[in-house]
Amino acid sequence: MKKIDCKILSILVLVLLIPYLSYLSGLESNQEIIENNSVTVFDENRAKNKVNTLLEENKDKELLINASYDKFFYLAFKNEGGNTHFVIDAKTGEETTILNYIKEGQRQAFFNKIKELLYLKYPKFIASFLEGEERIRDVELLENELIIYYNKEGIEPALEEELFLHVNYNEVKDYLDFTLVLDSTYENENGYQYDKNKKTIAFTFDDGPNGEKTNQLVNILEENKAHATFFMVGNRMEYGRETILNVLNKGNEIGSHSYAHQNLKRMSLATVLEGEKRTREIYKSITGKELLYTRPPYGNITSQIKKNLDTIFINWSLDTEDWLHRDKDKVVEAVLKDVEDGDIILMHDLYDSTIEAVEELLPILYADGYQVVSISELANLKGVTLEEHQLYYNLKEV
Ligand SMILES: [Zn+2]
Known about the structure:
This protein has 14 helices and 16 strands. By secondary structure, it is of the alpha/beta class. Among the domains are: about 45-95; about 200-390, Glycoside hydrolase/deacetylase (TIM Barrel, Alpha-Beta Barrel). The strands form four sheets. Strands 8, 9, 10, 13, 14 and 15 form a six-stranded parallel β-sheet that branches. Strands 1-2-3-4 form a four-stranded antiparallel β-sheet, with helices on one face. The longest helix has about 35 residues, at about 1-35. The model is unreliable at about 20-40 (pLDDT under 50). The chain binds zinc ion.
């Protein structure tokens, strides 16, 4: 009985085992079929060989990054005059670019985001030049961000500075098709910022507000990352509420240009003080803010006014005489001929020729390393504290 039992048992075991073994072998062959039939064969060795070749070829350079992403390998070496880097596709082992790892269907969205960031960082004449994908020269990967380098050949006016954009992964996380290290403390890109180390001048526009012309100037300033101070006439302010608010909303500032644009030298002190008080009241009723600066019409003040009117007096160091010539080219020439760091430039938001001149000047000044700002920003960047009862012509460093 015992022997028979054993035999039966072993037969039973075999009978049960055979289908299982054939099932296992079937699994194996199925797996092979799936691999052979898949569209792209994952040849990791090819990519790894390529990485090793590059490591060998660049062994005299300092290796900065040797990283493996989901779909590519990334190598960066330190090089004189900029780093070199390589993107190796994990499937093909070919050298490629980061721009080939944008999610399907997200390419347009990705480049729209890049365009938005370009316009935040650069004046319009640069951003509009760079917005096409064909301007991209190279893309570098860093831990939390990518850097897009641009080709600036052909931009007018020609620029010395290199053009590039740092893009934090938080800005493009929805579009890139590889694992990103997100920066938890990151706040949205705030774009262009004024720089204490750059040459800086203030643009000032007198005699407004002047409706559409003032607004046109505000737009041109905005497109060029520039600000200005508008010295406005009190009795015109009431008719220009919307314009005044637009000027302020775009980061510009407003000063007083007296109540009725009279020569203050020929007026009694009491009338001058009364006019200034009315101007301030009107301005405050519109904006809720105080007027900090006064530019006397024609630049005329007396020591008596200076002493008794509680304000900071601002004249100018460069007069474009735009009101006299009403000629765009003469205004452009007047500025470019004499402009210096710290200048306060006098213009008027009354003439089309002035608007056209500003539109032409701002890119040229930018390319020449200038930033154009309001009086308060100029003082701040130059580290000057403006004081009441003082008259300033420029804010050149002392
Ligand atoms: Zn004036």
